[in-house]
Amino acid sequence: MAVPWTEHMTLPAAIAATMTPLGAFLLIMVFTRSREKLSAALSLAAAAVSLVGSVWLIASHWQLQGPIQYSVRWLSSSDLNIPFGFLIDQVSLLMITVVSTISFLVQIYSLGYMAGDPGFSRYFGLMSLFLWAMMCLAVSPTLFQLYIFWELVGLSSYFLIGFWYEKFFASQAGKKALVMTRAGDIAMFVGILLVLMHLGNLNIVQIDGPNLAVNMPTGVMTLSAVLILAGIVGKSAQFPLLTWLPDAMQGPSPVSALLHSSTMVAAGIYLFERLFPFFVASPVATTIGLSIGTISMLLASTMAMVSRDLKQIWAYSTISQLGFMLMGLDAGSFFSGTFHMTTHAAFKALLFLCAGVFIHRFDSNDIYELSAKGSRGLKVPMACSLIAAGALAGLPPLSGFFSKEEILAGLAGLTNPLWLSAALLGVFMTGYYASRPMFILLFPRNSAEPAPSVLPAPAADHAGNHHRALYRLMSVPLIILAAATLTLGLLRNPLHIFLEGQYPLLVMPSGPHFAWLPWVASSLTLGGVGLAWIEFGRKRAEQIGFVDRIPVLARLFAERWYLDHLYRLLLDRLVDRGLSRLFAANDNRVIDGGIEQMADGMVAGGRLAALFNSGMIQYRLLMIFVILALLLLYFFF
Question: Is the pLDDT of residue 224 over 60?
Fold first, then answer.
C-alpha cells in the first residue's frame, strides 16, 4: 500500500517546529547579544518556522486515525531503555499550534514593547528558550522526556519573571515562582517513579492504554495520580500553590501574556489532557482535582474583585479560568477543558498585551491612574480589551461563552449539584471582576483623588517613551488576537470532531442536556456585568465596589486570604525555628561534638602513651616482666 507523502514529511516538520528555537537561543546567547536587530530577527524567524511547521502538521493530520510516534534510544541501563522522540496526536498537535501562534504574536509585540531595553537581545534569547522547551514538552512520547522539558519550562519562566533582576520585587517573584512550582514537581516526580516501577516504562500511549488497571493496583494508581496532580497544581497555580502567579506579573507584559496566561501555566492542564484516561481511572484523584479547581476558581475570583493592579487582575482571572478547566476535565468532559484552554489562550494573551500598551504609555499599572491619564484614548487596545474581557466573562457570541458552556454542561452531568452551583457562582463573579476594570478605564472620574483601596497603588513594571510607530507595531497582534477571540467559538464543532479521535477506547460520559443552563449562565454573567456597571460605570457611580465597603472582607481578599502570611508563618515556625534549629543542634552536638570528642580522645590517648615513653629503662623492664608473668600464669596455671 502506498504511504501518503505527508507521513514522510511529518518527522522533518516536527523536528523543524520544535528544534529551531533552540538554535536561535544558542546563536543569540553566544554570538549576537550585542546586535539587537539580528537577535530579534533570529528569534522571530525561529518562531515563524515553529508556527508554519505546527500549522502544517495539524492541517495535514486533521483526519489522524491514531497516534504517530518517532523515537530513538537515548539512555540504556540494564533492562531499562529511555527513548527520545516525538508523539504526534490530536492533543499535541493542538497544543503546539496554540503555543507557536501565541509565541509568534507576542514576539512581534515585543519588538515595540521592549524597544530600548538594555536586555533586548537577552529577552529574545530567553523567549526562544521557552518556546523550545514548551514545544518539546507538548510532543514528548514519554513522561521522562516530558518531565525534563517541564523543568526547562519552569527554568525559562524563572529567567523571564526575573528579567528585570535589578528590581528587588522582580527578583523575589522569580524565586517565589521557582520554589513554589518545584514543591509540586517533587511530588510529581515521585508519582512518575511509581508508574515506572509498576508498568516498567513511561510511554504515554501505554499509560493511557486499556491495560493500565491490570498492571497497576488501584491504590498505587490513585497515589501516583494524586502525586502527578500535585505537579499540575504547582504549574497551573492552583490552590494552595497559587500565590506565585500574581507576583509573577513583575516581569514584562509580553512575558505575562506568553508564560503566565496562555501557555506556561496551561502546561499543567495540558498534562491532565495528556494523561486523561489515567486520571479518570481514579475517582479519588478526580474528586481531589475537582475540589482543587473549584476552590482555586472561587478564591482567585474574590482576589480579582478588589485588586487595583491591572495585570494582577488578569493574573487572578487566569487562576480562576484554569480552575474552570480543571473542573471540566475532572468532571469527565475532555473536550470542554481542552476547548476552554484553546479559547483562553487567545483572549487572555489579548488582555495582557492590551494591559502592556496602557502600562507602556502611561507608566502605571493602577487602573484608576490609567483611567485618569486617558487610557480610553488608546482606541485599539481599549476596543480589544473590551472584546477580551467580554470573552473572559462569557458573553455571547464571543469564544469564551462557547467553551465555558461546555464546562458547565459537563458539571451538570455530575450527581452532586454542588459543583455546578459553585461554577455558576464563579460565572457571576467572573462577569463582575472582568467588567470592573473596563468600566473604570472607560469612565474616568474628575475627582483629584482616586478611589480608596485597602492596599497602596502598585508601581509600573516598565518605563518607556511611547512612539507612534511602536504603537502601530504593538497593535497588529492585538487585532489578530481580537479576531481569534471573535471567531474561535465557531470552531467548536470542527474541534470536537478533531478531538474525538484522541481516546477512541475511552467512554466519555454524555450527561443530560439542560436547555435552561445557557440561559441561567448568561443571566448570571449579565448580572455580574450589571452590578459592575452600577458601581463603576454609571454616571454618578462612586467607583467603589460592594466588597470595598466592608473593610474586613476587602482586606481578606486583597491579602489573598492571608495565604502568603500562612506560608511565611509556616516557614518561620517549621523551617527557621524548627528544622533550622534542629539541623543547627545536630551540627553542633553530633557533627562538631563528635569530632571534638574524637580529638579529645586522641589527646588523652597521647598523654597516656606519653607516660610509658619517659625514656627510663626501669619502667620498660617492669612492663616486660609483668607481661611475661601474666603469660606464664595463663599457659601453666
Answer: yes
In a domain, 96, yes or no: yes
- Tens digit of pLDDT for each residue in 410-426? 999 888 999 999 999 99
Question: What angle separates helix 266-274 from helix 120-138, to the nearest 10 degrees?
Answer: 20
Query: Which range is least confidently modeled, 166-170, 345-349, 359-363?
Result: 166-170
Per residue in 540-577, pLDDT (tens digit) is 888 888 998 999 999 999 888 888 888 888 777 776 66
Query: Does the global pTM surpass 0.85?
Result: yes
Please report whether residue 356 resides in a domain.
no
Residue 84 corresponds to which cell in the numbers above? 527520545
From 141, 157, 178, the end of a domain falls on 141
Structural domain count, the chain = 2
Q: CA 280 to CA 326: how far, in whole Å? A: 12
Per the document, the length of the chain is: 637
Strands, E, within 278-405: which ranges?
none
Please write down the HEC assignment for all residues of 38-78: HHHHHHHHHHHHHHHHHHHHHHHCCCCCCCEEEEEEEEEEC
Q: Is the dihedral of CA 112, 117, 121, 125 positive or negative?
A: negative
Instruction: Please give the pLDDT value at position 453.
Output: 43
Reference 280, options 225, 199, 336, 324; nearest CA is 225
Domain span holding position 30: 1-141
| Site of grid cell 488497571 | 213
Buried b (16+ CB within 10 A) or exposed e, 461-472: bbebeeeeebbe
For residues 379 and 496, is the Cβ–Cβ distance under 8 A? no
Task: Please say which residue of 118, 141, 164 terminates a domain.
Answer: 141
Cα–chain-centroid distance for residue 537? 33
State how far the Cα of 125 lies from the Cα of 131, in Å rounded to an integer. 10
- List b or e across 75-93, with b for residues whose CB sees 16 or more CB atoms inside 10 angstroms: eeeeeeeebbbbbbbbbbb
